[in-house]
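Notebook, bench 3.
Goal today: get a predicted structure for Exosortase P from Lentzea kristufekii so we can plan the truncation constructs. The sequence was checked against the plasmid map this morning, with no discrepancies at the termini. Length recorded as 172 residues. Pasting the sequence as submitted so the record is complete.
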Amino acid sequence: MTLAVRRTAFPSRVTVVVLLAVAAGLVFAHRLYRTAEISLSGAVLSVISSYGVDVVPERQTVYFGLGSDTPLGLRMTPECTSAFLVLPLIVVGAVMIALRPRIQSRVLFALGVAALAVVVVNQFRVLTLVGLVDWLGVDTGYYWGHTLLGSMVSVFGGAAALVAFVWLATRK
């Protein structure tokens, strides 16, 4: 009895290598990713805030509430970035394409939707924190916005992105 192993088509192999390279890039260049992510947060806050906002990209920090009674700087640490929620999706997507090359386009579409969802959820988490600091003050608002509610937003948003990824990648 022999088991036939289907060889992955060349374009699919290239896609797998590119996805794994992107995953490695997220690990090794996470500082650059965090800089982009905090810059996006600063842009969003500038649009919705009536107080000053300043981004210091080299420190991955956004300062908000400038000119208010509750100014605060928020640094995007490696633990708080969406990169490490996107990373497993990319790796799983690469494995799915390697095992079933014919679903490559569905997996890539699902990966794009899920990655965008994770980034949006993380931005919502930052906005939640900013809103709670503005509403409840720095100490209480930061505690509720970062430790409790912010973590719940990340967990539920990440779970929803994972469900969407699996559903979109595997549906016929």
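Strands lie at 52-56, 61-66, 72-75. The CA atoms of residues 75 and 162 lie 26 Å apart.
Flagging this for group meeting.
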